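Section 5.1 Outputs to date
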Amino acid sequence: MITGSHTLLYSDDPAATRAFFRDVLELSFIETSPGWLIFATGPSELGAHPRTWPGRDEPVAQRHVVSLTCDDLDATMAALAARGARFAGEVWEQEYGRGIEVEVPGMEPLTVYQPSYAPAWER
């Protein structure tokens, strides 16, 4: 029935955002019309989180979050940095893994993280 997910990210500079996904993240893509690139993002998973939880009484402002996962955060950061990526903030650690925000031209940063659990697509 459901075969995958299609993520839309809105950018103030779509050409620069697409170039980042193509040249820095090196995602494979198809071109559906001139300059209109649709990127393959590999396996995916979806979670439904509460907007509040114990210790956080103010609701999370976002309703949707897109994160990119990797097998080895340190190696991924080194490879991305070698291709010109810049990171916002420091590496963080949570019970679900460790990650960092990568700056994306034309839009807000995206989270890149190494899960500490076996991803849903591996089950």
